[in-house]
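User: Earlier you gave me the apo prediction for this protein. Now I'd like the version with copper (II) ion bound, so I can compare the two side by side. Same sequence as before, with the ligand SMILES added.
Assistant: Got it. Here's the input I'm using:
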Amino acid sequence: MHTARRGLSRRDALKLAGAAGLAGIITVYPGRRVFAAADQSLNLAVERTRITIDGETSSAISIGGSIPAPTLRWREGQEVVIYVTNRLDEGTSIHWHGLLLQGVMDGAPGFNGFVPIGPGETYTYRFKLRQAGTYWYHSHSASQEQEGMYGAIVIEPAGRDPVRADRDYVVLLSDHTPEDPENVLRKLKVSEGYYNNNKRTLIDFFRDARRDGLGATINDRLAWGEMRMDATDLADVTGYQFLVNGKGPRDNWTAVFNPGERVRLRIINGSAMSIFDVRIPGLPMTVVSADGQNVVPVKVDEFRFGVGETYDVIVMPTEDKPFTFFAESIDRTGFARATIATREGVEGDIPERRPRAILTMADMAMAPGMDHGSMAGMDHSSMPGMDHSAMQGMNHGNMPGMDHGAMQGMDHSAMQGMDHGNMPGMDQGSMPGMNQGKAGSKDQAVGWGDAGTPPGAKALSYADLKALSKAKDLREPSHEIEVQLTGMMSRYIWTLNGEKFDEGAPIRVAYGDRVRIRFVNTTMMAHPMHLHGMFVEIENGQTDRMPKKHVVLVPPGQVTTVQLTADEPGEWPFHCHLLYHMASGMMTRFIVEPRTASL
Ligand SMILES: [Cu+2]
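And here is the structure of the complex with copper (II) ion:
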């Protein structure tokens, strides 16, 4: 078992599962704990603790004594029993993210009759595992997830695993703030820009231009400031430490391999608020599973990783050298890092950091049928047919006092109609970093879609995901449910269809219905939309093999459609998985009513 200290080879995992026999409930966290209970049960205590990341210690909450919580290794078909004891002085809960189960076992307070587990109480979860794959579990109470309450779930298939691997590692990404999460939310509500240090210089430019009397010739409704949203708010909380399996970049979690082995990485985004761009320079990743569901293998160099999503990838390092697993948060305030090497204690190069993507008006103009009326503070009349010609009359020759230095990173792609040829006297040479609209330029990434992927490199797109097996329900959806992702960033209110949680009507479908859900993102942020209890299938052109997912990352200003067979009765949480968005109201009830109820 030379590999067991840090990771668990597939063979070892199977051996352990075998040793447990019918009981079969195994929890393993590399290097920390292995328990195999003979009585098919497992005890997990929730308690306050301290966590030390890269030498810095702060407050946290653990499940089962560690952060992340112990990896639960189970087998499809087993019935598992988990006793969760709350040693906090507040209510808690554990939600089994992505698992198909009875509503009350889903662990979301206020849904399906589940009530918070009170201080000192023990709650017994019991459910049969009806699926295989990579999932995770986390608190669904207050902001406890942000404080460390998350762990991985690995369910081995009952039959043969179509994915072959010599090594099997969980790579759980998370974000940790040394600050009290309740404080974070309070500050966000006071001022949405509190954590946004990357103020965009285009705003300054327009402001200055107005101050200098040029405003009359500029359609100032173009300025982002008018939208009461900050164009750089790809993420709205920063100051995070980004972790891999609980370790900061300096502590450097390491996965060990022998050259030539197939290494399976079960990558989970267990962050509260952080969307990442993930890559392993020099090591292509073959995506074999998304959100726990097998897909036709697709080879990529990188992928954008929404909160709550999971991807299993296979890597096959043949050289005896360290590779760096690198996950940059999309606001580029930091990164999570780990190492894949033939031994502990070595490290690979830290790749060059990429520029932050700047959202453009093009991002906002993408959404057909977008309800512009719901975009608070924005002058919608100027949006759909944005009149760039209004800028052509701008007399650039009269801009002697214009501070070109302030134009670094200015996004000209939003000004495509602007005739640069009419700008005599404008010293283009003094505008470093200026991007004349070439998306993907090295200097400045433009638009949500641009992760700064270098030419020739392949970034995963949802369109690439194709389910390994054919869908069971091929009916056309009988009706469509529109879910607008809405918000008022100036007051840090995030909503669905313009209404805060439990202010609007829940979504109701009948058991057995086949429906389409149409997500219309009217905001400037991406929202990873998560449905409990069921998988949705993304309408990505894969006809009878649409990928099944439990989290769908809906880009800013865009529309994403999914289909769903409502085959799990209950009252399921349906929410944005960005923790503070959910906490501020971006959640609803998705009710699957038994047929009898409608008679
Ligand atoms: Cu959100």
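For your comparison, keep in mind: Confidence is low (pLDDT under 50) at residues 1-39, 197-232, 366-445.
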